[in-house]
């Protein structure tokens, strides 16, 4: 690690293609980068956050042609839209890089010259299968039924003379590097994916395009008839923006570089980039953090389906902080997630309006009502107060670890557990009764509550900066936001109040789910539910004449209704981990991906070996009350058939996406 890098943090997003405007997928990655950058700033780190746009290549030229503009006018316009979108959703990046910047182009030339001089670039003829959408050649094994796995389009056969980067020279080095740095690529599933890919011989990378085919790019410094392949150009943004090789920013931040990407661009980042860096004599980045894909109503987002979710529409409708919170809370970093507005509304009402909103409003109301906003400092804490204090200290420590590991949903879960504890503490302490009996104790109890609220507000600041700052203002604090560093907040009794505590309008008034911004895809559960409601109104729910008759039939026959069945959340899951439970002959502890990771205990140790279960798809009931078996909490049940010979897992007919609903 560089001398100045000890307390530094460098985070990047992919640089987005300017062939489309920002959508919820781009917004998610960029918000994640913003959240983690804010967290490190709160922790006292010197932080550099980079985003930008990727402006060369075929795709961009085609998009410009479609829009009838010159390429330069087009890239300037779309890049500007990205640049203007981020501040609107409270993204505070330090630099916005464009691959058409002079400085970037110069850096790409420099790296190409270095690698060329080293002998790692050669000229040769190549014929291959090329996907225009991905701007790259595919090997047969990478294609899915002969088609590009991302664009599902047949690649074109292209044959031409080109320059190649000897990536194969670095295969052994990269395998060893990944093996000796286990969290170089994380979460683990993506590291495994890269390692699996590296089991096959690595082909050299075609890094040029003849100008006769594509002229919009950075010319090769050693052959003016060619421009640089867009990926070789784009990846270099991460160092050109820091002023490689001599810039102070480069020296300070490169040793602690962390990238965030989605799984779609794992190969260029997990393989091309480290090899390019090694060839250029530059140390690899520190971590590649890979997240999954946002789908919309169980399907892929695409222009042609008309289901693109635009970040600004949601932020305007529900509030920016609610939108940011939802994205980070709902997606398990690393896994895919399904976006529905209905789930956003549910989270809004339960987590924000109810849990957090109520805690703040009831606490502030009481401080204003009983003490006119002026609490006296107190340290007369009793056992029950100290137990809340201990819980709040523990949460701060666990939160830090979870943030550093990019498990944002877990960090938010434990903050909400603390909010729950504080609400429960109020219910138990009954300040409204103390108000008539014991003012001293009332003052202490409200001190305890406001201490927890202060800690909660600081932990939430990276996710919901406006909300956190509003809460801190209501607490009467003199310094707010980024100025309230993580280490300073932990201790109770050190609040620097400069004005009385105050009430304010509700932070999150409840919302109703009315109009969809995105049309549900056909076959989605929502449509079925809507249809059912319509049917019910018309009086033919489940073929019955009305609810009363239905209840009677159920009672008499022991049958259940369709609605009863629909209360079960049944999903497809993929088993990710399996282990025996010490002391149990029957039980296995499984980690199952059902759109999120769940620990499930299943009684199948007698019938299945743990190794045979990995990557098997199963059917899971996901909404059972958790139970603890042999000390392990089980959150769900795996369906299996049983006869006198054994137990057989129920398995989907075809490989299905983990989390797919069964109805
Ligand atoms: N220009 C390249 C990246 C070069 S980086 C040196 C590119 N651009 S892109 O515009 O296609 O952006 C891809 C990235 O956008 C993904 O890796 C991810 O960060 C984000 N997302 C785009 N769609 C997404 C979803 N549906 N869900 C989650 N993130 C997605 O690839």
Attribute tags:
single chain, 5-stranded antiparallel sheet, globular, binds 5'-O-[(L-methionyl)-sulphamoyl]adenosine
The main sheet comes to:
7 strands, parallel
Helix proportion: 40-55%
Strand content: 15-25%
What are the low-pLDDT stretches, counting only 5+ consecutive residues below 50?
Answer: 518-549, 554-558
Overall pLDDT confidence: 89
| Strand tally | 25
Radius of gyration: 28 Å
Estimated structural class:
alpha/beta
Supply the number of helical segments.
23
> What's the overall geometry?
globular
Briefly, what is this?
The protein has 663 residues and is α/β, with parallel strands linked by helices.
Structure report:
By secondary structure, this protein is α/β, with parallel strands linked by helices. The chain contains 23 helices and 25 strands. The strands form seven sheets. Strands 1, 2, 3, 4, 8, 13 and 14 form a seven-stranded parallel sheet that branches. Helix 14 packs parallel to helix 17 (439-460) and helix 15 (408-429) packs antiparallel against helix 17 (439-460). The protein is globular and about 90 Å long. Bound molecules: 5'-O-[(L-methionyl)-sulphamoyl]adenosine. Residues 14-17, 25-26, 28-29, 54, 234-235, 237, 261-262, 264-265, 293-294, 301 line the site of 5'-O-[(L-methionyl)-sulphamoyl]adenosine (MSP). The site of 5'-O-[(L-methionyl)-sulphamoyl]adenosine has 19 residues, from strand 2, helix 1, helix 7 and strand 13.
